[in-house]
Amino acid sequence: MIKCVYPGSFDPVTSGHLDIIERAAAMFDDVTVAVLVNKNKKPAFSAQQRMDFIKRSTTHLKGIQVDSFHGLLVDYMKKRDAQLIIRGLRAISDFEYEFQMAAMNAKLAKDVETVFLMTDISHSFLSSSMVKEIVSHGGDITGLVPEDIKNDVIKYFCR
Ligand code: PNS
Description:
Strand content: 15-25%
Radius of gyration: 15 Å
CATH architecture: 3-Layer(aba) Sandwich
Distance between the termini: 45 Å
Strand order of the largest sheet: 3-2-1-4-5
CATH superfamily: HUPs
Shape: globular
Bound molecules: 4'-phosphopantetheine
Structural class: alpha/beta
């Protein structure tokens, strides 16, 4: 069975991320959504919260596991015995960074492939940073994040 990992910061998970998770779940039996714990970054949400948001947004899907990792992605792939990295592509602007990352991961681990899934066009403008920006100014994030977590995301910024 092919084991896949969809890695990311997911700070917080957006409707665009969920779209990629749904597409991956339809294609592969074993998909792990892996939240990066990066000590050099200061995320809005803790790794535990980010994982919880993803879990609550994916209860309708089968074969999805949610985990966190730190360090190199290729080392985490090895630990999970996974072969495929899944990444979403929203726009041409994503390509350069994604291309570089895929090439580097391929160099670091010869047996690991990166598969890109196109985000639905309706999410092509969407990012976690944009969600945080909008909600912090009191804007409406309906449809931008999964409905199950929307109120918690709003609550965080209205403390
Ligand atoms: O959601 P993001 O922030 O675009 O995800 C980026 C992520 C987590 C996939 C990437 O930063 C990553 O894999 N980091 C782990 C460290 C690593 O392996 N770096 C080398 C890849 S070139």
